[in-house]
From TrEMBL:
Domain of life: Bacteria
Database matches in InterPro entries: DUF3000
Protein name: DUF3000 domain-containing protein
Region of interest called Disordered, as start-end residue ranges on this chain: 1-34
Pfam families named among the record's database cross-references: DUF3000
């Protein structure tokens, strides 16, 4: 699976290049708060559409006291149509910028067809795909923040035979609404994020029941700073 490259930061509720470049899964187990453990368990047992391959990945350190991350790719044969990373952050003391104790941070990337890359409304459309994916599953969230970046590559000299390529990158974060137990519906947020990945990859909307039970591979316990 192609992992999304780049560092996530969420200092003020937004996305950008963070100073922290170290990653480690750590061993926290029983030291992690029950709400965080429940949120991670929900991620591991989420029902996801089968076209999206999801697995745990080391979570960035120092963004929050507790963090858990997954990476995903939409794969067609040997080609990755889109990939990304979703990070769940938790600060039991709360965070002023989050207006909550949990935060979801994401990076999504995909190659673009030339016609789509030339659309001047593409950044607005991609942001609408993100918010629409959350709203389609009835999720309540707050403090959304992010950027949509469009990049083009042109090849010269010894690489001139390669066709020009364009890529879209969505960096975003939002605060999921916490339930009565203080735990957000992280499984639904993960499912909506996979819907976003599929849409960016050009897949049609999932049909009713078009999902499979996915249990994320168990590597280590949720990581803490």
């Amino acid at each position: 699976m192609a992992a999304a490259q780049g560092r996530l930061s969420d200092g003020a509720g937004g996305m950008g290049e963070g100073k922290d470049t170290e990653e480690d899964e750590g061993h926290t187990g029983s030291t992690a708060p029950p709400a965080f453990r429940a949120a991670v368990d929900a991620l591991r047992g989420a029902r996801l559409r089968p076209q999206v391959e999801v697995e745990p990945t080391p979570a960035p350190q120092r963004l929050a006291p507790f963090a858990y991350a997954v990476e995903a790719a939409v794969v067609d044969g040997d080609q990755d149509l889109a990939d990304g990373r979703l990070v769940l952050l938790h600060d039991p003391a709360g965070h002023d910028a989050w207006h909550g104790t949990f935060r979801l941070v994401t990076l999504v990337r995909a190659e673009l067809e030339p016609e789509m890359a030339a659309d001047p409304l593409l950044p607005e459309v991609c942001w609408a795909w993100l918010t629409g994916a959350l709203q389609a599953r009835g999720l309540v969230y707050g403090e959304p923040s992010g950027t949509v970046t469009r990049a083009s590559s042109h090849y010269f000299g010894g690489l001139s035979a390669r066709p020009a390529a364009s890529q879209i990158e969505i960096r975003a974060s939002w605060t999921p609404r916490e339930g009565r137990t203080g735990v957000p519906d992280t499984a639904a947020h993960l499912a909506s994020w996979c819907d976003l990945l599929a849409q960016v990859a050009g897949l049609p909307p999932a049909a009713p029941g078009d999902a499979s039970v996915v249990t994320l591979p168990q590597r280590r316990d949720p990581q803490a700073r």
